[in-house]
Design a protein that fits this description.
The protein is of the alpha+beta class. Helix content is about 75%, strand content about 10%.
Length: about 300
């Protein structure tokens, strides 16, 4: 066994003995970090669970191109073909609604049947309904509307973008809020680990001094504290994942009735295991970084 591996084994053993020698303090510290980590993790679970729903919703926004009343079916078809040809990569679907079909559908509605019956002619124009796909729908739909309005026989373009703008704004706000919350939690974790390592270093002041007198390197002195920060934060991250998994059950039960009222199924789920593994590793590295900072500042004696 190489000397480096023996040193790491020794440091890990020292760290575990220190944790077990003060079980209440260790558990309390891990619990504080767990609760802090659970909040952004729950937010990430909600945001990632909403992403498929948002993608489904943002695939539905429609633009309606109203032709002039004098436009013939051939001219309407020409405009529809031009949209398909020029913007094939930007649209998901396109359908043409003739003026006769639109009138018959309105007459089928009792609320409009009597009013339409007294009209001598069909006042409705042909319409082309375009379903967009992709991202940045609000900006793209405005540009497309401005372009299509300039085409011959096009009277107006109705853009269904107000709710798209609201949805995109909500998602941007949620992402920004989650990022800010993650930064706040990272600072809280840094502070918790920094203070814990500081107290450990001060309580072992004499032991560290003796180790230096007999030739211990700074890496040897710091290594147990780095393991302390990494293990505490790694365990807290795993505990936070378990806590959020437990909390999601009652939340999903409450969400089920709300989702059914909108005719859909929705449930909050934890992110994929790859994301969770990166979360645990990242938090452990954050703890080690905070421990290194703390032990460097508080063992200068």
């Amino acid at each position: 066994m190489s000397p480096l591996i023996r040193q790491h084994r020794y440091a890990l053993g020292v760290t575990l003995r220190r944790l077990l020698s003060q079980p209440f303090s260790s558990i309390a510290n891990i619990l504080v970090i767990t609760l802090a980590l659970a909040i952004p993790l729950l937010g990430a679970a909600a945001l990632m669970s909403l992403r498929p729903v948002a993608n489904h919703l943002t695939a539905d926004p429609e633009m309606t191109v109203f032709m002039q009343v004098s436009a013939t079916p051939a001219e309407t078809g020409a405009v529809a073909d031009r949209i398909r040809r020029d913007h094939a990569s930007e649209i998901q679907a396109l359908r043409v609604i003739s003026r006769d079909r639109a009138l018959s559908e309105l007459k089928a509605n009792p609320a409009y049947a009597q009013a339409l019956a007294v009209l001598p002619d069909n006042p409705l124009p042909d319409a082309i309904v375009v379903t967009l796909e992709g991202e940045d729908l609000a900006q793209r739909s405005a540009k497309l509307a401005a372009l299509w309005k300039t085409w011959a026989k096009v009277d107006m373009v109705q853009v269904d973008s107000a709710w798209v703008q609201r949805l995109e704004a909500i998602l941007r706000f949620a992402r920004a809020s989650l990022l800010f919350l993650a930064l706040v939690v990272a600072v809280a974790v840094l502070a918790a680990v920094f203070n814990t390592v500081r107290m450990q270093a001060l309580s072992q002041r004499e032991e560290i001094g003796v180790a230096r007198l007999v030739g211990a390197t700074e890496s040897f002195v710091r290594r147990p504290f780095l393991y302390l920060g990494a293990i505490s934060c790694g365990v807290a991250a795993l505990a936070a994942i378990g806590l959020v998994a437990v909390v999601l059950d009652p939340l999903n039960a409450a969400l089920a009735d709300l989702a059914r009222s909108y005719g859909t199924e929705f449930a909050l789920r934890l992110p994929q295991w790859e994301w969770l593994a990166a979360f645990v590793v990242g938090v452990a590295l954050l703890g080690a970084l905070s421990a290194r900072w703390s032990v460097t500042r508080n063992t200068r004696f």
